[in-house]
Write a structure and sequence with these properties.
Elements: E1 2-4, H1 8-19, E2 25-27, H2 33-61, H3 66-74, H4 77-80, H5 86-89, H6 102-118, H7 124-138
Parallel strand pairs: 1-2
Helix pairs in contact: 6-7
GO molecular function, one term: oxidoreductase activity, acting on the CH-OH group of donors, NAD or NADP as acceptor
Domain 3-hydroxyisobutyrate dehydrogenase-like NAD-binding: 32-138
Protein name: NAD-binding protein
Length: 139
């Protein structure tokens, strides 16, 4: 997947060269937009990788089969990502109502963090997520 930013004419002119390096090209918009969308993509990918590592460590600490956990997570938004599951049918259509109650999400994060703490498994991204839900509950 290649990203480009520029006018339609600029990207069209560069397409033959760019396609020699990949099989899909997305014009992200005007000049500078390709690097901006790359920044967001990398931010999300790196953060999700770190969160996945936290989950894998907790899975091991709980004595769970990682193969079973992976199969479960691969079939849910945890593994497929919200951009391809819940967002297209809800958020991107303007529906911002919670699909999963904020209080339940806060509770579930709390339980996972409590268990991780008892097992001495650091979960800084989980803790940061819980703080976001604390703020949502207070709003």
């Amino acid at each position: 997947l290649l990203l480009a930013g520029g006018t339609a004419q600029q990207v069209e002119r560069a397409t033959p060269v760019l396609m020699a390096m990949g099989n899909e090209l997305i014009n992200a918009g005007g000049p500078g937009m390709g690097i901006r969308v790359k920044l967001i993509n990398n931010y999300m990918s790196i953060a999700l990788n770190a969160l996945s590592a936290e989950a894998a460590v907790l899975c091991e600490a709980l004595g769970l089969s990682f193969d079973v956990a992976l199969k479960v997570m691969s079939g849910t938004p945890a593994g497929k990502g919200h951009f391809t599951t819940s967002w297209p049918n809800k958020v991107l259509k303007g529906d911002l109502s919670p699909a999963f109650m904020i209080d339940l999400a806060h509770k579930d994060l709390g339980i996972a963090l409590d268990v991780a703490n008892q097992l001495h498994v650091p979960m800084p991204l989980g803790a940061a997520s819980r703080e976001v839900y604390n703020q949502a509950r207070a709003a």
